[in-house]
Amino acid sequence: AHLDRIAAVDEKVNAFLHVDTEGALAAARAVDERRASGGELGPLAGVPLALKDVFTTEGVPTTCGSKILEGWKPPYDATLTRRLKEAGVVVLGKTNMDEFAMGSSTENSAYGPTGNPWDLTRIPGGSGGGSSAALAAFEAPLAIGTDTGGSIRQPAAVTGTVGVKPTYGAVSRYGLVAFSSSLDQGGPCARTVLDAALLHEAIAGHDPLDSTSIDAPVPAVVEAARAGATGDLRGVRVGVVKEFSGEGYQAGVMQRFTESVELLRELGAEVVELSCPSFTYAMPAYYLIAPSEASSNLARFDAMRYGLRVGDDGTRSAEEVTALTREAGFGAEVKRRIMLGTYALSSGYYDAYYGQAQKVRTLITRDFEAAFGRVDVLVSPTTPTTAFPIGERADDPLAMYLADLCTIPSNLAGNAAMSLPCGLAPEDGLPVGLQIIAPAMADDRLYRVGAAVE
Ligand code: GLN
User: Fold this and answer.
1) CA distances (Å), 185 to each of 88, 150, 170, 424, in order?
2) How far apart are the first and last CA of the chain?
3) Between vectors from CA 235 to CA 229 and to CA 240, what angle results, nearest 5°?
4) Which of 3, 124, 302, 304 is deepest in the core (most CB within 10 A)?
5) Tell me, what's the pLDDT at 301?
6) Do the interacting molecules here have an ipTM over 0.90?
7) What atom of ligand 1 comes closest to residue 290's alpha carbon?
8) Nearest CA to ligand 1 atom 5
9) Confidence tier at 306 by pLDDT (50, 70, 90)
């Protein structure tokens, strides 16, 4: 049924870069056989899923939305891919994304933009716009995204779906093509908080193949979602961060957010306003740290090891072929980030830019620590505005970067955060996202509070 739905609507939505019909049907049949033979089946056995094209899938194309990886079929599965398969999840295919996950609108994909199913002339968010659009268009009931600065939560917010960035290190990055290794985190996308929790439990957990993977039990997120669904939030302390409001925030977004805070109070939560002054500097710190790490990570696309190779006619040196390939294979935003990052890391500038940004990162982490000394979770709008029209911010990187104003601090600090729908903005009828933030390894709190207000 989901393959039929994709065939019917994806020409318009463009959520998928690759539909793996054969693989999906084989996985579904395997679950059927297991059921027939009386084998044990987990809660997600046979459930279809859309996978962001940044996770490796053995024998199935993985492009990261880039021309430089066109046609590349990885020889191995990411740990996340393997876990999905072991859970009996049916991977329908790979979803569209901003090239190498750099963007906030999915317009930076080398394979054309994805439309927001609420209004196809608008962006579905980014970088994981394909995954969230697939959910909103009912092409898949579950999806996977990655969140380096907001790429799970921001698309969830603007498509009216749920997205969770787990605690950094909770979900293995082995086989997740690296953008910014100290920030990247895979996570669940779904249409309900409980669905997200079930997927969270399937993908999280220690992996010896990822040196930053946390070796500790996964928080009981499914249990928390079930507990939250009773709607009782007595004893829960919620902080409203002052810095996540003001200029640039759409009126209808703030209206729905204020109503959500009111609802939290009605459910018994204690709400306090607090200030995290360093959050003001999260955006500039992120746009030094993320491009710096990217400039190093993307050095591996050298025309020798993977995908595209341009100008290799026997007359050119390896360096020339590498340069020609990177010139032809990378898009404008990727080149911009590589240049920014290389500059920020170069000797003489390192202390002024990268070093300074790392200090700001510490201050942001301390602001979170102070806040979580007073409250259990923080809440904010997920994005300052609803989905903007395709093309509107395409030529203005700074305007584009603002879409992640509320999501970036959690990546810098490595804590857990969720976006879930909290109604439609009255002025444009488009979905608004509520963000909930919890301390590292307290992901269960997101699900308890999220399920209560859902
Ligand atoms: N929009 C942010 C960026 O362009 C975040 C991307 C992400 O989370 N992958 O870097």
Assistant:
1) 22, 10, 8, 28
2) 27
3) 85
4) 124
5) 97
6) yes
7) 10
8) 149
9) confident
Which domains, from first to last, does the chain contain? 2-282+357-453 (3.90.1300.10)
Give the number of other CB atoms < 10 A from CB of residue 273: 9
- Cα torsion through 387, 117, 126, 222, rounded to 10: 110
User: 65 CA distance to ligand 1 centroid (A)?
Assistant: 14
Ligand 1 pocket (Cβ < 6 Å) reads: 101-104, 127, 147-151, 179, 290, 404
Q: What pTM, to 2 d.p., does this model score? A: 0.98
Do 134 and 42 contact (CB within 8 A), yes or no? no
Show which residues are catalytic: 52, 127, 151
Using the mean position of ligand 1's atoms as its centre, give its distance from the Cα of residue 101 in Å: 6
Atom of ligand 1 nearest to the CA of 404: 1
Ligand 1 binding pocket mutation candidate from 52, 54, 105, 148 (most atoms within 8 A of CB) = 148
**Ligand 1: which of 55, 106, 127 to mutate, most ligand atoms within 8 Å of CB?**
127
CA 87 to ligand 1 centroid distance, Å: 29
Q: What is the pLDDT of residue 232?
A: 97
Strand, coil or helix: what is 186? strand
How many C-beta atoms surround the C-beta of residue 59 within 10 A? 12
